[in-house]
Write a structure and sequence with these properties.
The complex is a heterotrimer of chains A (about 500), B (about 350) and C (about 350). With about 500 residues, chain A is an alpha/beta fold. Chain A has 17 helices and 20 strands. In chain A, α6 links the parallel β7 and β8. In chain A, α3 packs parallel to α5, α4 packs across α5 and α16 crosses α17. The longest helix of chain A is centred in the middle third of the chain and has 16 residues. Chain B has one domain: ABC transporter involved in vitamin B12 uptake, BtuC. In chain B, α3 crosses α12. The longest helix of chain B has about 35 residues. In chain B, about 75% of the residues lie in helices and about 0% in strands. Chain B is mainly alpha-helical and about 350 residues long. Chain C is mainly alpha-helical. Chain C has one domain. In chain C, β2 and β3 form a beta hairpin. The longest helix of chain C is centred in the N-terminal third of the chain and has 43 residues. Chain C starts with 9 loop residues before the first helix and ends with a helix. Chains in contact: A-B, A-C, B-C. Chains A and C meet through β2, α10, α11 and α13 of A and α1, α10, α11 and α15 of C.
Chain lengths: ~500, ~350, ~350
């Protein structure tokens, strides 16, 4: 570690002590304490709902703690407002980056610090060189005059990093920084993280991706149900230990795959599928009753292939056959008509109607399948479907009229699943089916998929969670640079083999 | 990454202007040329000056509306505020209050406009209500209160200071080129436009308005005081509306509580035509001015072409649909292009 | 049974059916929660004015006037509710209704000039032509919004100007007289003491209520308004839904045009200019979420009655139309602020449910 810090490497740049925060009687953070050294990457890990985001909000001044204190560079605060936090050198890069899409890159970089300085006038001409300086210092290439809404996700993130550093950040908090990035973009980000460390900036990474956590951080702090259960050097932890601390229980990810009848017919067949610039020559088959895993790094093309099969971004070459008949997949409705269902990665915006009831969400995809001969909804059939799925998928909610917003991640995912099961698709694709889902729900969701496959559905699971793929998939496709490079079968479906093939 | 490859589109973008001001200017120019060829009477200084004269009040209203639209809202109460402020001022000056003079009269009107703006701003910022619905509500309240508690009488004789100053000024500004009259009140309109352009471009307040219109949550996280800024926007919009109302009354040399009713949507149409985005975060004073003038030129052209004035509303409606339709189709196309762009960018380069 | 489940045992099935019963009961209570407020408001408004000015307010004429004024406003308010349900708005409703009334009046006068008896006979044709004008206007709105992707507020702002401009140019700004006498007869007659027009209103409300809550189209309209992206990923064809919605609002405007001309055998371009604001007030007061996804027809019907009661109560108390305008504005803002505060409180109390675990 290059310890350029003034007070020596051991004096923390940020400390939080005994933070307690409750929402309406429920404790979100229970006596949490943390410290961060300059030039250090601390990973804050934990499952969804463990209190990570609440802690970040308290450090950044967006929420006030009930008790406890925050110490920055020796100054003690009982609570902060966003401007206090920015002034004392704390910067947060949120998952959505919180940029202004309608303003230029240069202006986005400068504006926040200008606000913190309580400036009254603004000069675009003066802003540009300041923005340029920070961009150059980090060795980046950014078009300073482009509107942010025209940038790629990676460039947006770089803009957010520049914005954080222009006001001389001492502490940089990044919320799930790698989620939307491709593999090379992640590598580039990590290079920049190293540069920041050498400047003495302390970084907090909020993440639930275990391998990433271990790769980049010096220390790991794990929260579970609002408590800091462990803080330990990264070298002392392995993925299994982290998972144990995060969930409080051993993972059960043993392989549990039914025997597949060699005679069962092929429900889906891809021949030379391609989309210019995204993927090419993708061919594979899916049998009735089979669970097929698709894996690869972010940006490998795995999501694009799934979206092509669901008609979101249609392919431009090749043929897709469902039950042996070529189908046209130019729109989502084409795909649904062909009997294909899709549980999308972004559950909250693409999968669910958050303020609508569980009942409305379950029936959303299949009103036409529940009509009387007058074309009105057959309320009895609707109720039977909803109650049947609600009970079978064990959605934990007081009743089916509860809004989906009140559900936890695992239960919300069951509702998305129920929406598709209500339609009985021939083929069901799931993208990241257990992301943000608690461990208990995870096992149950995989169980549901196994049961559906056993009942004759063809299932495709797109995931970068190797143990999950091993636990439920008959075969696993590995996608790299837009091509299917490997089809793992039988004993080859193992965690180590998958990780090795993906990274190769 | 998107570095040097953008050079040519960049240059095009510059010509078009951030909000298509370039396109609008070309359309306006083409219309003027076409009208001049069709009817030589159009291409004269008196016509130009009369178009400018009729643009004064709409421009002032449009500037207030522009600011609100950039902040991500919409204001349909400005006409009610304008009438309320102007008519109440005239009534106050008439009924025995010592003559405050032109400046005093304006000060009173602007104060009234600002107070009504506070009501809008408070309701919108404090309760985070949809702006269209709040201003529809306050529009009814302001108009009803004016007619119930202030008066409903038509006033033909303005207070001497206003009438006197307005008439004397009108003669003073007769221009040397021919017998064309350029109204003196063009001056405050132009000053207001330049002032607002400066505020929007060169003050933190102005940039905060754009930021809030772009993403309120991000603005809050950046430490921008959203509530205070929003209230200020509606206060200034109310003040501008009051100024527009006063100028309307002075130029019409009469006051009635029924004036300006129904002009709200024409103004909003002009601002949107001028390139402001109804979703907030985009818009410019130059574009708005061009939009207002375009609408006035079309009115004038229709009259010269002998089209019954009844068709004016239809013409503005058609213009709005065409303008917004082109924007909508273009943005849809560019969003489709960006999907493919994104796919391209996500593609990893083999090492 | 489509959803055969090997794990479902008799006991759990029994549990489920008990659960379902409770759920239905709770569901009923929930629906009434939104409408209950409106019911109370109607009763309170009625009681207040009945107490203050019983001699005028409770007179047969006044009550009949409430029943006569409500239908045209109520039908347009229901149309506004539909547009808001998809997350849009329709500012052109009143202009379309006027255009429909003008079409009918013009057709009748033109035919009657040659053969008055024939004009009376053609009454159904004239009626259909008026409604067709509304449907056409709505279809144009729908195409602009779903086809070109223009924001509803701007598209209907534009078409409002266009439809209104056509009406002004057509009538020369004058009021047209003349309509089939059968229509006027319907407009002025009552059954069981209640105007026929009010029955029409109830019929329209029930029909739209059925569409919204009991048909696939209605469910899709609600879902489209609640979250357009999720709707797309659920296979809901947003263009088709939006087009259908605006055709439906156009149809309702056409019906409102018929109601206009049934009440008074006249038509003009500027009739009901104040309705544009009024129907938004009614829709929002009736519990419609202007951001889309949530609304009930019953709530809107009750809100219509409330405002008509307030309006006629004001008249009974010799308050002016301007004071009524103030009341309208205050009711609108108060209703919105109330909803918002309630919503925020609910969000806050919900937070812990999401946070831990």
């Amino acid at each position: 570690m290059t310890s350029t810090a003034l007070k020596g490497p051991s004096s923390p740049v940020l400390e939080v002590r005994n933070i307690v925060k409750t929402f309406g009687g429920v404790t979100a953070l229970n006596d949490v304490s943390l410290d961060l050294l300059p030039g250090e990457v601390l990973c804050l890990a934990g499952e969804n709902g463990c209190g990570k985001s609440t802690l970040i909000k308290i450090i950044s001044g967006a929420e006030k703690p009930d008790s406890g204190e925050i110490i920055v560079d020796g100054n003690t605060y009982s609570s902060m407002d966003p401007t206090d936090a920015i002034k004392s050198g704390i910067q947060v890069i949120y998952q959505d980056f919180s940029l202004f899409p309608n303003l230029t890159v240069a202006e986005n970089i400068i504006l926040t610090s200008a606000v913190a300085d309580r400036r009254r006038l603004y000069s675009g001409r003066a802003a540009r060189p300041a923005a340029q300086a920070i961009v150059d210092e980090l060795g980046l290439h950014l078009d300073l005059d482009a509107d942010v809404e025209r940038l790629s996700v990676a460039d947006k993130q770089l803009t957010a990093i520049c914005r954080a550093l222009v006001s001389d950040a001492r502490v940089l908090i990044m919320d799930e920084p790698t989620t939307a990035l491709t593999h090379t973009e992640v590598d580039r980000l990590f290079v920049i993280v190293e540069r920041l460390r050498s400047r003495g900036v302390g970084l907090i990474f909020v993440s639930h991706k275990l391998d990433e956590v271990l790769k980049i951080s010096q220390r790991v702090a794990i929260l579970r149900s609002g408590k800091n259960v462990v803080t330990s050097p990264a070298s002392m932890l392995d993925p299994r230990a982290i998972a144990l601390h995060m969930t409080g229980q051993e993972l059960d990810e043993t392989r549990h795959v039914s025997e597949l009848d060699a005679q069962s017919e092929i429900v889906l067949e891809l021949e030379g599928l391609g989309l210019r610039g995204a993927y090419e020559d993708v061919s594979f088959t899916l049998r009735r009753g089979e669970i097929l895993g698709v894996t690869g790094l972010l940006g490998s093309g795995r999501t694009e292939i799934a979206e092509a099969l669901f008609g979101v971004v249609p392919h431009d070459s090749g043929v897709v056959k469902v039950n042996g008949t070529p189908v046209r997949l130019h729109s989502i409705n084409d795909a649904i008509d062909a009997g294909i269902g899709y549980v999308p990665e972004d559950r909250l915006t693409q999968g669910l109607f958050m303020d609508k009831s569980i009942a409305d969400n379950i029936i959303a995809g299949s009103p036409n399948e529940h009509t009387t001969r007058f074309g009105t909804l057959d309320l009895r059939a609707v109720r039977e479907t909803i109650q049947g799925l609600f009970a079978r998928l064990r959605v934990k909610a007081p009743n089916v009229q509860a809004p989906v917003r009140s559900l936890s991640g695992g239960n919300a995912q069951r509702v998305v699943l129920a929406k598709w099961l209500a339609r009985r698709p021939r083929i069901l694709m799931l993208n990241g089916p257990t992301v943000g889902v608690d461990i208990g729900s995870k096992a149950e969701i995989l169980g549901i998929l196994r049961a559906e496959a056993a009942a004759g559905m063809g299932v495709i699971v797109i995931s970068d969670d190797a143990p999950e793929l091993v636990a439920c998939c008959h075969r696993v496709l590995v996608v790299r640079h837009g091509r299917v490079v490997e089809i793992l079968e039988g004993d080859d479906v193992a965690v180590d083999t998958i990780r090795e093939k993906v990274a190769a | 990454m998107s570095g040097a490859s953008l050079a040519i589109p960049d240059r095009l973008r510059l010509l078009r202007g951030a909000n298509n001001e370039g396109v609008l200017a070309v359309v306006l120019l083409a219309l003027i040329v076409a009208m001049s060829i069709a009817n030589p009477a159009f291409f004269t200084l008196p016509t130009a000056f009369s178009i400018l004269r009729s643009s004064i009040v709409p421009l002032i209203f449009a500037l207030g509306v522009l600011m609100v639209i950039i902040s991500g809202g919409i204001d349909v109460s400005f006409a009610a505020i304008a009438v309320f402020a102007a008519y109440t001022t005239v009534r106050a000056l008439q009924s025995g209050t010592p003559d405050l003079g032109l400046i005093g009269a304006f000060a009173l009107a602007l104060l009234i406009g600002a107070s009504l703006g506070v009501i809008n701003g408070f309701l919108i910022a404090k309760f985070r209500l949809p702006t269209l619905i709040v201003t529809l509500g306050t529009q009814g309240i302001f108009k009803g209160a004016l007619l119930t508690y202030v008066g409903s009488r038509y006033i033909a004789d303005l207070p001497t200071s206003m009438a006197h100053v307005s008439t004397t000024n009108l003669f003073e500004v007769s221009t040397p080129t021919g017998s064309a009259y350029l109204h003196v009140l063009v001056v405050p309109a132009v000053l207001l436009a330049m002032g607002l352009a400066w505020v929007l471009r060169s003050t933190m307040f102005g940039r905060s308005i754009y930021a809030i219109g772009g993403d309120v949550e991000a603005a809050r996280r950046a430490g921008i005081r959203v509530m205070r800024t929003q209230v200020a926007v509606y206060v200034i919009a109310g003040t501008m509306a009051a100024a527009g109302g006063m100028i309307y009354v002075i130029m019409g040399r009469s006051a009635s509580p029924q004036i300006l009713v129904g002009s709200e949507l024409d103004i909003i149409a002009a601002v949107v035509l001028g390139g402001a985005s109804i979703f907030g975060g985009r818009g410019s004073v130059l574009g708005t001015a061009l939009g207002v003038i375009l609408v006035q030129v079309i009115y004038n052209s229709l009259i010269l072409a002998g089209v019954p004035s009844a068709w004016q509303r239809t013409a503005v409606g058609v213009l709005l649909i065409i303008g917004v339709g082109i924007q909508a189709v273009a943005s849809r196309r560019s969003s489709r292009a960006s999907v493919i762009d994104e796919t391209h960018q996500k593609q990893e380069v083999p090492a | 049974m489509k959803l055969a489940d090997p794990e479902t045992k008799p006991l759990s099935r029994l549990n489920d059916s008990v659960d379902a019963g409770w759920t239905r009961l709770l569901g009923l209570g929930r629906i009434e929660g939104g409408v209950r407020r409106m019911l109370i408001l109607v009763v309170v408004a009625f009681a207040v004015f009945a107490a203050l000015k019983p001699s005028i307010f409770l007179s047969g004429t006044n009550l009949r006037n409430i029943a006569l004024n409500s239908p045209e406003i109520g039908v347009i308010a229901i149309a506004m509710m539909l547009a808001m349900l998809t997350g849009g708005i329709d500012l052109s409703l009143v202009a379309m209704a006027n255009l429909s009334a003008i079409t009918m009046s013009t057709m009748f006068t033109a035919v009657a000039a040659g053969d008055p008896a024939l004009a009376e006979q053609l009454f159904p044709v004239i009626l259909l032509a008026g409604i067709a004008v509304g449907v056409l206007g709505g279809a144009i709105n729908g195409l602009l919004i779903s086809g070109l992707g223009i924001t509803p507020i701007l598209a209907t702002l534009g078409t409002m100007q266009i439809y209104n401009g056509i009406a002004v140019a057509w009538t020369g700004g004058k009021t047209l007289y003349g309509s089939p006498s059968a229509l006027t007869a319907i407009g002025s007659s009552t059954v069981a003491g209640i105007p026929i027009l009010f029955y029409v209103f109830v019929l329209v409300a029930v029909a739209i209520g059925v569409v919204v809550t009991r048909t696939p189209l209605g469910l899709r309209i609600q879902l489209q308004g609640a979250n357009p992206t999720a709707a797309r990923y659920s296979g809901i064809a947003s263009r088709k839904i939006l087009l259908s919605t605006y055709v439906l609002t156009g149809l309702l405007s056409g019906i409102a045009g018929v109601l206009f001309i049934a009440r008074n055998p006249t038509a003009s371009a500027d009739y009901g200019a104040s309705y544009v604001l009024l129907v938004i007030v009614i829709a929002v007061l009736g519990g419609t979420n202007p951001n889309g996804g949530f609304a009930t027809v019953l709530g809107v019907v009750l809100a219509t009655l409330t405002l008509q009661i307030v309006s006629s109560g004001f008249t009974a108390m010799r308050l002016s139309a301007y004071q009524y305008a103030i009341a309208q504005g205050l009711i609108l803002v108060a209703a919105m602020a109330f909803e918002q505060v309630k919503w925020r409180r609910r969000l806050r109390s919900r937070k812990p449910a999401v946070q831990p675990g």
